[in-house]
Amino acid sequence: MSSLKKHAQQGFTIVELLIVIVVIGILAALVITTYNGIQQKGRNTERNTDLKAIQGQLEAYYAQKGFYPDSSNLGAGGVDGVNNVTFIKADMKGLDKEALRDPKGPVNNYSLGTTASATQYGYAPTQDDGTTACTAAAGDCTKYKLFAQPEGGTLVTVESLN
């Protein structure tokens, strides 16, 4: 007759399962870190593109009017930038309103601050000396600085070409 052979029980030990779980955890952490880095670089690139778009429209505005808009026209210190949207529709027709909003900024907030923050661009128009505040009504805004705070980097400043 045939003899019955006892088979050793097949399966994974708890140690083998723990090793697999740790390896999967390490791979997941690498993927998440890489993904976040790519997202951050994308937002920083968008910030640079937005500043260049705003600069282009400000220079076109200067070419037409002979001065730059003052802080109130682009909502420096404003809350939602509703007046900004009206202003850019009338005087900066080539500018998409979304260029005024930082990628991490609140939705529908199209106002520029007087300085940059982590969620808002900054716009600081001045007179020729670069320090004195100006007004569009007086037509003495002859220089400006645009600011953006990139993630994980130093403040980006774009100055007027004038």
Outline of this structure?
The protein has 162 residues and is mainly alpha-helical. The chain contains two helices and three strands, in the order ααβββ.
Mean pLDDT: 85
Class from secondary-structure proportions = mainly alpha
Hey, roughly how much beta strand do the residues contain? 5-15%
Give the count of helical stretches.
2
Distance between the termini: 103 Å
In the sheet with the most strands, the strands line up as 1-2-3
Helical fraction equals: 25-40%
Count the strands? 3
Main sheet, how many strands, which sense, barrel?
A: 3 strands, antiparallel
Q: Poorly predicted ranges (pLDDT <50, ≥5 residues)?
A: none
Radius of gyration, in Å, reads 27 Å
Please state the overall shape, judged from the principal axes of the Cα atoms: rod-shaped
Furnish the topology, listing elements before pairings.
Layout: H1 14-65, H2 82-91, E1 122-126, E2 143-148, E3 156-159
Antiparallel strand pairs: 1-2, 2-3
Describe the structure.
By secondary structure, the protein is mostly helical. The chain has 2 helices and 3 strands, in the order ααβββ. A 3-stranded antiparallel sheet has the order 1-2-3, covered by helices on one side. Strand 2 (143-148) and strand 3 form a beta hairpin. It is rod-shaped, with a radius of gyration of 27 Å. The model has no long low-confidence stretch (mean pLDDT 85).
Brief descriptors of the model:
single chain; 162 residues; mainly alpha; three-stranded antiparallel β-sheet; 2 helices; rod-shaped
